[in-house]
Amino acid sequence: MPESTGPKPPDARPSPSVPSTKGIAASTRRVVAHLSTLVRLERELAQAELRRKGTVVGSGLGVGAGAAFLVPYVVAFGLATATAALALVVDVWLALLIMFVVLIVVVAVLALVARSLIRKGTPITPEQALEEARLTQAVLKGSNAR
């Protein structure tokens, strides 16, 4: 019997060099690829969240350092005011007292802003990424834990 050179029958197997898109092995590869992509994206989310929180805490620490920088000046003006008030009870001490009060207000405002920024950025944990990982794990286990 001569061999037919026509098209292959539909049930012919694909050549080994062409990966199959069917079967358990291909499905497993796709699942593993999706899981590794999901893990990579969750890691990137955690890194972005930590960068954002670190920036806020850094800003709070900078403002707090500004307040700490002004403390010696506040003390110096306070002492100068007390000295001027005792030495001569005239208008000079009033000017020094006004400056003392202004510096105290500035330091208080800077300290409150610093405290607010530090509280806003703490705790420094990637809460959103951890929640996403927990939800993903729950879905993979088969439960909807929302």
What does this structure look like?
By secondary structure, this protein is mainly alpha-helical. The chain is 75% helix and 0% strand. Helix 1 packs antiparallel against helix 2 (91-121) and helix 1 runs antiparallel to helix 3 (127-141). The chain starts with 23 loop residues before the first helix and ends in a 5-residue tail after the last helix.
Give the gist of this structure.
The protein has three helices and no strands. With 146 residues, the chain is an all-alpha fold.
Q: What descriptors fit this protein?
A:
146 residues; 3 helices
Secondary-structure topology with pairs:
Blueprint: H1 24-87, H2 91-121, H3 127-141
**Approximate strand percentage:** under 5%
Shape by Cα distribution: rod-shaped
Kindly, what is the distance between the CA atoms of the first and last residues, rounded to a whole number of angstroms?
Answer: 67 Å
> Which range best describes the helical content: under 10%, 10-25%, 25-40%, 40-55%, 55-70% or over 70%?
over 70%
Mean model confidence by pLDDT: 79
Which sequence of SSEs, written as H and E, runs from N to C? HHH
Structural class: mainly alpha
Q: Biggest sheet: strands, sense, closure?
A: none
The number of E-state strands comes to 0
Total helices: the number is 3
Spans where pLDDT lies below 50 across 5 or more residues: none
Alpha carbon gyration radius? 35 Å
